[in-house]
Amino acid sequence: MKKVVIVGGGSAGWMSAAFLAKVLGASVQITLLESKQIATVGVGEATIPPIQLFNQLLGISEPDFIAATQATFKLGIQFEHWGKINERYMHAFGPTGKQMGLTPFVHYWLRARAEGDNSVLGDYSFNSLAAKKQRFGQSTKKAGPGNPSLVYAYHFDASAYAQLLKKYSLAQGVVHCEGTLADVQINALDGNIQTLKLTDGHTISGDLFIDCSGQRSLLLGQALKVPFESWQHWLPCNRAVAIQSDAQLAAPFTRAIAHSNGWQWQIPLQNRTGNGLVYASDFGSDAQAIRTLEQHLPGNPITDPNVLSFKVGRYRDQWRNNCVAIGLASGFLEPLESTSLHMVQSSLVRLAKLFPALEILATDVAEFNRQATLEAEGIRDFIILHYRQTQRQDSDFWRNIHSTPAPESLQDRIDTFLASGYLARRNDELFDENAWTQVLIGQGLIPKRYHVLAEQMPKSDLIVFLRSLRQQVDTFSETLSCHQSYVKNLVDKKVRNYA
Ligand SMILES: Cc1cc2nc3c(=O)[nH]c(=O)nc-3n(C[C@H](O)[C@H](O)[C@H](O)COP(=O)(O)OP(=O)(O)OC[C@H]3O[C@@H](n4cnc5c(N)ncnc54)[C@H](O)[C@@H]3O)c2cc1C
């Protein structure tokens, strides 16, 4: 396995090139093919915390990254009008409250609630309160009890990030090839991809091919004919319109605002705001979607509406023969929980761990595909949850949501949580119990019972316990800086720490 060929120069292509060049070093020669004629998807600006590890592994410093990509910090996602119109909740990163022995914090909160306490779950989250107050800060001390810290991701300009990674990759020796793929030659004996033929007659051969060609899935889907598994019956949205508007005071969270015909993202960057409406062509027209988005922009538009269509679902295998698909070429889930770039990252880590030395082993391929399937299905269920647990009935779009039963894996979880408040992270999935709990409760699903161990705390102690946690969160939030100023200072390379 000497020659790795990446097809596609979008976020997935350049993330792959940078990562593989860094991890595999001189043991492989990497070529990236991209077409000037075919645009990248041009969206994908909100992330989740593991992106920090990706940059750290590459050795890209945070101030450099923030300055190069117009990035801001992200502490979570605020969901508005999802459970019911006029309700909102935050899916914040980082812990909520404090686990007591074996009993998750939520059971103490549920007990207090049953006894008349009216605090909301977010009152116990450092991230949630900081986000609400539009504050941010980083600790130089190791996080731990008595030394809280925020868990964060970024909002950034995806094209600028791809450019940063391109520069990085070229410096690591990645060969950049401009051209348009016209044909894929497959070895009839073993079914492996042998050579890529470009429209200008040039050819590129390789040992391992990484398909980052976007939704066209030129290698995995088209050349190798791996079947696509559609999830549209669970997630009906198949279109999005994006409009950028001018910069506003940057909030440290993404907004996901439900409307009668879909949902809107709002992503604050330093120099502009990214906006989009995700909707279903079965329940509304492009014109209607554009109107909805234009009516709800936070500022003046600076781009024309860009309408995109997408297929929700994934290719059954993400690695077939000598081809691994990464990014949109492997499938897509709507960006409600900002998971796509993370899935690029996790596919790359998986590939690096199973990278073939001499030959591709069927056992490694099967393991890669098994892990990728579990990851995608866990995220799929988490996204479907937002739609299932809603009381909205104000349009066909929302009324239709319940017409298909939820995946069994999700329905089980909802039923168990409703009955007893029990939740367990499955198969090392991306979202942990705290993430599921915030969304379940945020969408209005309150368990009928709480754990018996939560009963053991005397009522007066419970009140003091909860009050002191709220105070700790509030006191901490007061030590933080205004998010907007923090970003500005960071860009000026004046990192401000709090003790
Ligand atoms: C509406 C929407 C919103 C999103 N929001 C988020 C978000 O907030 N957070 C997040 O993590 N992700 C988000 N995503 C997903 C994210 O945009 C993608 O995962 C990411 O950009 C990776 O895209 P890609 O590189 O796989 O594909 P693309 O950007 O489509 O790149 C494909 C590449 O393949 C090349 N190519 C295609 N055909 C040929 C050919 N014949 N020859 C040579 N080259 C070719 C193109 O030139 C291009 O360089 C969103 C996606 C959509 C659709």
UniProtKB/TrEMBL annotation:
Protein name: Tryptophan halogenase family protein
Database matches in Gene3D superfamilies: FAD/NAD(P)-binding domain (3.50.50.60)
GO molecular function (one): oxidoreductase activity
PANTHER family recorded: FAD-BINDING PROTEIN, FLAVIN-DEPENDENT TRYPTOPHAN HALOGENASE
SUPFAM superfamilies (alphabetical): FAD/NAD(P)-binding domain
EC number from the UniProt entry: 1.14.19.-
Keywords: Oxidoreductase
Lineage: Bacteria, Pseudomonadati, Pseudomonadota, Gammaproteobacteria, Cellvibrionales
Domain of life assignment: Bacteria
Pfam family, one: Trp_halogenase
